[in-house]
Amino acid sequence: MIVITGGAGMIGSIIAWHLNTKLNRDDIVIVDRITHEEQWQNLTHRQYAHYLDKDQLMSWLEGADSKGRTDIEAVIHMGAISATTERDFNKLVETNIQYSQNLWTWCANHQVPFFYASSAATYGDGNLGYDDASIENLRPLNGYGYSKHFFDQWALRQVNKKLPTPPNWAGFKFFNVYGPNEYHKERMASVAFHTFNQFSETGTMKLFKGTKAGVEDGMQMRDFVYVKDAAAVVNYFLESALAKKSVPNGIYNIGTGKARSFKDLATNVMQSMNREPHITFVDMPQDLQGKYQYFTEAAMSKLASAGYTHPFHSLEDGVRDYVQNYLTQEDKYC
């Protein structure tokens, strides 16, 4: 069986989609805590064996006896508090650090592959670049980014100290992921999703003015990655581990390697709706000022050197698939 925490979230549910449709596997344990009233719909097209609340997972893994479960082939840990605006650091420690440490330790003790979600938010303002070859000296801009960076550092310390580690493990620094099944994320949903909704309702899309010197309105740049590509990378590492194929353990960027502007993203959404684009520029909210990444672009050579060669969707192709095959359909869930 494959355990997916955050399995009712955007990336987790698309990883499960990949397992169902590409690998013909339904022996999946979905772990989550659904709090949004519509999030359950992310699971309506999934085939899986069990659903567990996140607080049930550790006792379930330990099983009925002291030996614990022996039928778990891998743990894919996507569950987290992912809001960059979360101010309760105690919650971030409990959910994003301690919970992850407990799963890592269980996988290490039982020699089960472990793959987890890190974040491009660990890179902070980008002054040190976005290269996954080293994570030293990074300074995240918010508590969420710091919690992910802390766990990355902790995992590497386990390796460097020659402490028990999972036989196969990888952390994934996801850049700006967009795509189907993000509808429950509200403010934290992608600009692609917000553009579709705002433009449908008002005939325009609001983007931030260029509040930093040299940045024009709407020209803040991000490495936008389609969720199906993000899931495909995770599943590459999973399939390699299950097939006993040698892929280096470590922390990897998941992005396209090409930054695009929010203006490009919004324009492509509106064009995919077969309508004339219209954008209105507004001031950045106070709670984001000083904590905002103006440019992100993933260095992707490390992933390529790990043997991953499948092409990523271009922004145009990813947005078109998202809008035309999901957002404009009666059933928008993947």
Descriptive notes:
With 334 residues, this protein is α/β, with parallel strands linked by helices. The protein folds into two domains: 223 residues, 3-Layer(aba) Sandwich (Rossmann fold), CATH 3.40.50; 91 residues, UDP-galactose 4-epimerase, domain 1, CATH 3.90.25. The chain has nine helices and 13 strands. The strands form four sheets. Strands 3-2-1-4-5-6-11 form a seven-stranded parallel sheet, sandwiched between helices. Strands 7-10 form a two-stranded parallel sheet. A two-stranded parallel sheet has the order 8-13. α1 crosses α6 and α3 packs parallel to α4. The protein starts with a strand and ends in a 7-residue tail after the last helix. The model has no long low-confidence stretch (mean pLDDT 94).
CATH topology of the largest domain: Rossmann fold
End-to-end distance, in Å? 22 Å
* Beta-strand proportion: 15-25%
Name of the CATH class of the largest domain = Alpha Beta
Q: What's the β-strand tally?
A: 13
What do we call the CATH homologous superfamily of the largest domain? NAD(P)-binding Rossmann-like Domain
> What is the alpha-carbon Rg in Å?
19 Å
Indicate the structural class. Answer: alpha/beta
Give the overall pLDDT as a whole number: 94
| Count of separate structural domains | 2
The appropriate CATH architecture of the largest domain is: 3-Layer(aba) Sandwich
Helix content: 25-40%
Topology order in helix (H) and strand (E) letters: EHEEHEHEHEEHEEEHEEHEHH
What ranges have pLDDT less than 50 throughout 5 or more consecutive residues?
none
